[in-house]
Amino acid sequence: MAINKLAVIVFSIIIAVCLAGCTVAVRAPKMAFNKVVELEGDGYEIESAFNTAIVRWPGVTWSISGTYLPLGDSMSAAPRDFFRYDYATPSLFRLHVRGADGCATSNVAEGNATRALDKLFARIGGWPARGETTLTLVKTVKPVQRYALSAKFGKAFHLDYLVSCTPSNAEDSLWVALMVAMHESTHATLSVLGQTPKDTERSERIAEGAESCLLIELSNDSGAVLSTHPRAALRMAGRYESIAQDKEIQALCSDWSEYMRNVIRQQNKR
User: Fold this and answer.
1) How does pLDDT run across 23-46, given as a tens digit for each residue?
2) Which ranges does the record mark as transmembrane (predicted)?
């Protein structure tokens, strides 16, 4: 039977209208995080894992955000917003961090994060796709295996993740949340625009470069950031044995910056 394209478009729009602006989150079986299962089977200890998938229907973008936290969520208080960042050139991009009071950071830390993000986007001349990434900081006790589904009109994504909060070092938790945001937002942006590198390792390295650039912008001495923010250091060291070396962070950042600038140039020509 032939598919009626008009019917597909109408159905897609109806669903998007119903879901636009909200996120549907479901608990997923551990097997849904197959890479985690594989690594733990090889004896690795996983602190957290995140994944992103973008699905385009006619006129609608579906965003699927996966969060795996082995120690999970014990936050009883309703989360509140405590950090929001908007960047509107050439496309509107938003970062939104929330959490319980024990996870809130100081005004100084939030100011540092805003300035670092300003410099980050200035490096590449803006941001090439519309999107929003929401991160909720949670205290961890029981495992989280969660997938969130969002719908947006046009070429725009909405990602939603949970990130572990360390109340004794809330600033470190904010840095890690922003690292996750930039990593996954890079994947989502390139997917929405059809610019994801075909080589998986290359794609992952570019996304890791977004995190590296953020660390550089948070401090003139990225090594100092790693020494004072242990979870940020652990997130990077889990991938590269030499990541503590400033030259590796610089190389990752350079790869991301060059690739994203090229994507923006291509978008500006259209």
Assistant:
1) 788 888 778 888 887 877 887 777
2) 6-26
Cβ atoms of 157 and 128 within 8 Å: the answer is no
240 inside domain:
yes
DSSP 28: -
User: Given a cut of 50, is residue 104 above it in pLDDT?
Assistant: yes
- 15 domain-assigned: no
Residue 71 and residue 143 in contact, taking contact as beta carbons nearer than 8 Å: yes
Instruction: Say if 14 falls within a structural domain.
Output: no
Helix 170-192, helix 246-269: angle, nearest 10: 40
Instruction: Tell me if the bond preceding 90 is cis, omega within 30° of 0.
Output: yes
User: Among candidates 246, 232, 107, which has minimal Cα distance to 182?
Assistant: 232
Burial class (CB in 10 A: 0-12, 13-18, 19+), 143: middle
In a domain, 63, yes or no: yes
Provide the whole-model pTM: 0.85
Contacts 24+ apart (CB under 8 A), 103-108: 103/137, 103/138, 103/139, 103/165, 103/167, 103/170, 103/173, 104/80, 104/170, 105/170, 105/171, 105/173, 105/174, 106/170, 106/171
- Name the residue range of residue 140's domain: 20-269
Element (H, E) at 154: none
Give the pair of three-digit tokens for residue 235.
Answer: 């997130």
Q: How many domains does the chain have?
A: 1
